[in-house]
Amino acid sequence: MAVGMMRPLLLVSALSLPLWGQAATTGDIRVQLSAQRYTVLSSEIAGKVTDIAVKEGEHFKQGDTLVTFDCTVLREKLNYSNAAENAARKKLAIADRLDKLNSISLSDVDQARSSVSMAQAESGVNRAMLQRCAIKAPFSGRVTETKVKRWESVPEGKELLAIYDDSAFELEMIVPSRWLVWLKQGSAFQVTLDETGLSYPAEISRLSSAIDPVSQSVKVFGRITQSTAGLLPGMSGVAQIVPPDAGSVSP
Description:
This protein is an alpha+beta fold. The protein has three domains: about 5-35 and about 170-250, Efflux pump adaptor protein, beta barrel domain (Elongation Factor Tu (Ef-tu), domain 3, Beta Barrel), CATH 2.40.30.170; about 40-65 and about 135-165, CATH 2.40.50.100; about 70-130, Helix Hairpins (Orthogonal Bundle). Helices cover about 25% and strands about 35% of the residues. The chain is built from three helices and 15 strands. Strands 2-11-14-13-12-15 form a six-stranded antiparallel beta barrel. A four-stranded antiparallel sheet has the order 3-10-8-5, with no helix packed on it. The longest helix is centred in the middle third of the chain and has 29 residues, at about 70-100. The model is unreliable at about 1-25 and about 245-250 (pLDDT under 50). Keywords: Signal. One of its GO terms (cellular component) is efflux pump complex.
C-alpha cells in the first residue's frame, strides 16, 4: 500500500511478538491494563493468623488492618521488658542519690545507666515486634488473592494477600521505535478495552529508556485520563494513536 493511501489512524498494542511484522501488516498492536501500585503483603513474624478482614475482590482503605496474628507471647515479652525497664530506672535513681552522697563508685553509676539503656532497647524491640502482629493496608485498593486461611500458622516471610490500588491504572504497549520521532510524553490517544467495549481518552505518561534492537521496538506507558471506575488489571484492548502528520509516517 502506498504511503499516501494509508489511513491516518494507527493502531497500537502491547505485549505481542513479533511486534514489527504485526505493525507493518495489520497495524493492530495490543494494549494491556495494569495497576500502577500492586504488591503482595507478607508476614513479618512467625505466628498464627487469627483474622483476615478482607476477602478476594473486596475493597479496603489505607491504614485498615487486613490480617491479624496471635501475639500473646510477644505481648507478654513487652510487659516483661517494660517491668525490667522500670526496675532499672529505680536502681539508677538510687545510684544517683548515692552518688551525690559520695557513697557509690562511678563504675556502679555507669552500670546502672547502662542497664536502663539496655532495658529501653529491649522494650523498643518488643514494641516493634508487637506492631507486626497486624498487617495494615499501605494504600487503598482491592484484594486480588488470599494466600492463607484463618488459624493457619505461618512462618516469617509467608505471602498473605495480593493487593492493588484500584484508583490508578497504567497502559502498557510496545510500538515501533521509529514512532519516537513523533510519539512523546503527553501525546493523546484513545484506547478501546475488549472487556468493556468502551473507548477511553488517554495520554502517553512515559517512554522506556531502551529500545529492543532485535524487534526495533520500544515499550510505552500511558494512562486513562477519565474515571477508571469498573476497570480491572489485566484488561486489554487496542489503542488508537494519530501521529501529527499521518501521511508522512509509516506504521
